[in-house]
Amino acid sequence: MTYLCNVERNKNLLRTKKEKKNKEKQRTKNNNNNKKITIMKKSVFFLAALVCMMMQSVSTFASDRIIPKEQLPATAQTFIQKTFPGQTVSYAKIDFDGRKTYEVRLSNGTEVEFDKNGTWDKVDCNYSAVPANLVPANIATYVKSNFPGATIVKIDKERYGYDIELSNDLELKFNKSGQMLRVDD
């Protein structure tokens, strides 16, 4: 009888050990599944964020829009007529990259950028001279005396002053009062 009780007790102990092992395996399996689920959740979140960023960049690039020249501010239209008589607008576009600006290309290839109010910001005549009335007098004098034979083909208003590009591919930087800051080649 004692022998049977011991055998029965051993069977119960073995069964208990097996149950504990099975429970431990199940717990480990659940932990692994939880880790996989967490990784999947993070992956889905990352992909969603990536898609949102891509959509934002697409909408940013889509912010340029061709417009009829009549939709340019009146100041810009008057500037084009007076500064570039005889030239027609090939295209005009409005740009909303951070701030509202207008870009215009004329029939001779000249490109003009305007701020939201229609005030010119940049004039790029490519290989022909920028109209003299756009260049401050002291900058024109400096260029004429230091770079004879070169013409100003691009002028760009900057926060600090002006960027000037010459026909010899030199870039000159001037402060707001027209004093030379540096030369970039």
Largest sheet: 9 strands, antiparallel
**Count of individual domains:** 2
Uncertain ranges: none
CATH topology label of the largest domain: Inhibitor of vertebrate lysozyme, Ivy
Tell me the span between the first and last alpha carbons: 107 Å
Structural class, please? Answer: alpha+beta
The CATH class of the largest domain turns out to be: Alpha Beta
How helical, in percent, are the residues?
40-55%
- Give the strand line-up of the largest sheet: 1-2-3-4-5-6-7-8-9
Percent strand equals: 25-35%
Please state the second-level CATH architecture of the largest domain: 3-Layer(aba) Sandwich
Order of helices and strands: HEHEEEEHEEEE
Shape: elongated
Compute the average pLDDT. Answer: 84
Tell me about this structure:
With 185 residues, the chain is of the alpha+beta class. The chain is 43% helix and 25% strand. It has helices at residues 2-61, 74-83, 137-146; strands at 65-67, 89-95, 101-106, 111-114, 120-124, 152-157, 161-166, 171-175, 180-184. It contains three helices and nine strands. The chain is elongated. The mean pLDDT is 84. The chain has two domains: 1-62; 65-184, Inhibitor of vertebrate lysozyme, Ivy (3-Layer(aba) Sandwich), CATH 3.40.1420.30. A nine-stranded antiparallel beta sheet has the order 1-2-3-4-5-6-7-8-9, covered by helices on one side. The longest helix has 60 residues, at 2-61.
